[in-house]
Amino acid sequence: MAWRGGRPLNSVDRRPSTLNRNTSPKMNIRKSEEADFAAMLAIVNDAARAYRGVIPSDRWHEPYMPRDELEGESARGVVFWVAEQEGRMVGVMGIQDKGDVALVRHAYVVPTTQRSGVGTKLLRYVESLVDKPVLIGTWAAASWAIDFYRRNGYAVVSSQDKDRLLRRYWAIPPRQIETSVVLADRRWREAQSSTQS
Ligand SMILES: CC(C)(COP(=O)(O)OP(=O)(O)OC[C@H]1O[C@@H](n2cnc3c(N)ncnc32)[C@H](O)[C@@H]1OP(=O)(O)O)[C@@H](O)C(=O)NCCC(=O)NCCS
Question: What is the value of pTM for the model shown?
Fold first, then answer.
């Protein structure tokens, strides 16, 4: 299945997408460039502090995402999109094509801007780029993130499916598999139920 519009996921698209919500400032979503990496890392590492003391302590490290990890993810095909408000970067979200599914990866919003709709707009935007089922992995203990994805139409898959999906589509250590959940969109769930019936 192709990426929507026939545009490869890593092609350069500088078209601004301006999404407004009544009272919130004008928002622009654009594909990240290497020059954005420092600002992106600042957002990721600031927002990831929410995990400290929540996720298992053996999984916490600071900075949560070092630069080489961001570069590695990008090299492995995670395409990062950034949200800007009034010229300031306020959110980051990646999407990764994995053949029969797409993964939403590394979703982070500036802490002082959270719960104002930025994450939802970024999620809707990256979802709109793909024409295939979407999966998301997050920490089982990150209840706010699970809540965020649930209210955006995702559902936590069974523990058995979670193990299978994390092994198949992610490259994470066994301990992270143990302490994570996978959420799937409606398209993935419908495809599963039609295979089972
Ligand atoms: C998860 C995250 C990306 C969502 O982005 P956002 O811009 O805050 O999300 P939205 O404003 O679009 O949606 C808000 C909803 O998400 C959930 N949510 C987000 N942050 C929350 C928090 N700190 N506490 C509780 N619920 C939260 C709630 O359901 C919230 O709705 P509510 O405010 O009506 O209760 C952002 O909160 C974040 O960066 N969190 C820290 C890092 C993280 O957990 N990333 C997920 C990685 S998979």
Answer: 0.91
